[in-house]
Amino acid sequence: MKRHLFALLLILGVYGAFAQATAPKPRFPDNTSLDQWWPFCSATDLLDRTFTGFDLIGSSVTPTSDRFLVPNRAYEFNGFNSELHYTTTLIIPMFGIADFTYSCHIFPTAAQHAIIMYNGDPSNDGLGLIMTNAAGTGAGTQIGILFGGLTTYVPAGSTVTLGQWHHLVLKRNGNSYMLYIDGTFVGPAYIPAGFPASGYNTPTTVFQLGLDLTAGDKAFSGKIDDVATYSRQLSNLEIMALYNFDPNIVFTLGPDTAICPNAILIGGARDTTRLDTVQYPNYEVNSTYGFDYTWSNGDTVSTRQNITFPTTPVPPTIRTLTLSRRYSCPASSTIRITHIIPTVYIGPDTSMCDGESFLLNPTPGTGLMRYLWNTGATVPSIIADTTASYWLRVDSLVPFVNPITNLNDTTHCIGTDTAHVTVTPEIFVHVAEFDTSCDGTPIILYSYDDTAYTAPTYSWDDGINPPVLTPSLTVTTSGVYTLTVTDGACIRSDVSTITIVNVATTVLSNDTAICKGASVLANATGTPGVQYQWTPSAGIAVSNIPTPTIIPDTSAWYVVTATILDPVSGGLLNCASRDSFFIDVQPNPTVKMGGNRMVCQYDSIRISPIVTPYWYTNYIYDWTPGRYLDDSTTSTVIFTAGDTTKLILVVSTPAGCKSSDSAIIYTFNGDFMTMASDTALCPGDSVLIGAISSEPGVTSYSWQPPTYVNYPEATTPITIKPINSINYKLIGTSMYGCRDTLTYSIKVFPAAVVTLEDSVSINPGASYNIEPITNCTYFSWFPPTGLDDTTASTPVATPPVSTRYVLTARTQDNCITKDSISIRLNDNAIIGVPNAFTPGGDKYNVLNVALKGVARLRYFRIYDRWGKVVYESRDINAGWDGTIGGTPQPMGVYVYEVEAITDRGKILHKQGNVTLLR
Hints:
Immunoglobulin-like
């Protein structure tokens, strides 16, 4: 009963300590008219606690205690350059003619002429509070209202006491400005004459505390705290509430305490002395204007009991509670809870092998003890022989110092302890009894029964070195090795005897190649004490020594085998080491070139020597000189004739076994003919061509193709008369069988073509344009008589007499042709008269004489059918119009008669009938 009473007293004590609060204080006057609020809650706090973004910045201010003596809750100004400000003027509804309220607390330290708080430029616009003298012009201890720097109003009774906190309030009420100091109305100020209705000029710069930022003067000396602005005028009660409002939260969780490991609740209640039940807009978690609770474990709650300590023993626990409330500065309190734990210890967790037992015996406790095991036993100690968790509960009267009464006391605490006993199954350890490594390779030892272990630890011991704690052991030296396995509480061992010898041999001789019949000195080394044997033994006089001389007959691998005796028993171990090297026995070659050869210039021959023995395929060939060979390192080469050359072939093996042979390659001339250059002919022309040989004894020629060649095998120049262009090849064969080939091209130009009419008739004195059909470029006409141009392709001919003209034409390739034309003069075709006409009554429709050629009209007469002359004239240009004396003559047939004389005096006469038509 006493234990429960103590726990109740402890809870009530802590709860009561938490709920203790200061005397009742008024609620902070707030509603939507609060625009800015700076309570300066810490050494670096310049936040606008309305959380609307009007946070201040500044310089040279020092954190100091506020009017409630709470450290770092106000700022001190040095009277020189300290200031706080907002970056622009405060944009609030108090501008214009609206009512507003300024509020702040100051602690002046000297008489001064200094800005306290101002919105705008103190020299030109805005409004604020200034500390000055009674005239508002110099240092003093009065509080004045500064209007735009032009007028300072200092009410009577506005004096403040230096070294003491004062609350200042400036509010507008219509056209008057009212100043309050420490909640008492000091006096009004009215809008000065000439000022706008607002009472001040609209501010243009910044909101400032403690300094005229515009001019850099009027610096305040003292402290400033809890600055607020409202966009309405506050009532006298609200001004008193501001005057008395404490933004600091003061509470405690009570002193540190000690308890048994039982549940205890730690918490606190709201300060019921404040007006916490009124609903206001709240930026915190709670919807009411009350406290928010934040514990150090991160929980945010709103109840007064909120931390529960566990019933199991825990280390001393520290918990911190932070209280916050809108428009106030947060506060924190910390409590430390220590558990008084009874001394109960039944021993550590333990393990034992199957069939063993263990005594669980708790250490003695203090005070009166009562025991209760989970097995039901009530004795201090018990025997454990099965795998299980064993716990003991001990009731004990524990002495402690009561933190409330500070007196010695006891409490009935319960202590428990648990020990886990593990019974491990029996284990077996088995490693290799014997093992041998012949080549010195390490041997890995391990327990063959490790899959049956539960949580084993291993220890290997060779009796010389410190134990090795690994599941397996790599052994590099001979000895006796003991493995001890501990699995739970079971410990078992096994022993292994290990023999490690290094049977090694190395052939120092490298693989080599020799000519057949040579010898090789072999060289091997090995572990001391080994015995050697070389195989195969053919060609080895003594084969059981490390350095025998070998005269091999064929290529082979020579292997040396080393064996050793057991260093313990002296018997031969079943261990052997082998190494080998290869002897390549190469033949001594024989080379036969096959004699000298001849070749024509520019021709090639294949040379394939015979090299024996044939079975060897790794010969090395070296032909010299190699300038006329396709490859001087192959068994068969192609020789392209240049000069007569002596070829030498050296054939060798990689070991240097070699032989050689040579042959002379005679080169005969293959370029021994010359011939005239190509030519060009006109059709029908011929050319004489033939070759000149510088090689005596030319035996034959061959012309290809034989077209237009009378004797294709002729040895003398030949005459060729081609009719078209052609390319010839002349192949000459010398007495050595060498051939030389020449080419000869004959180009046959196109034939000259001219086509003229055989003859043509013209009237005397007339001209004729001769137009031949031709492909020629150059022309010559004969005779020149009557021609306008004897070199033109189409001359105009006016022959005085009938003439035959001959044309000689030439192409641009100088091919020539001829043709002729006869131009005859026809005297009988000079006079012409129509056989009918139709008079038209004008000079155009008349019957007249047409002269074709050069002639003069002697007369032109027309007779009617009775022989009467109806018209006569000597004018070649006149004609009968079908009338006589203007009288039209009837249709019918009339007779005409014409006589003319040519320019050569020949008289021409013609008559005939003409029909007059109407």
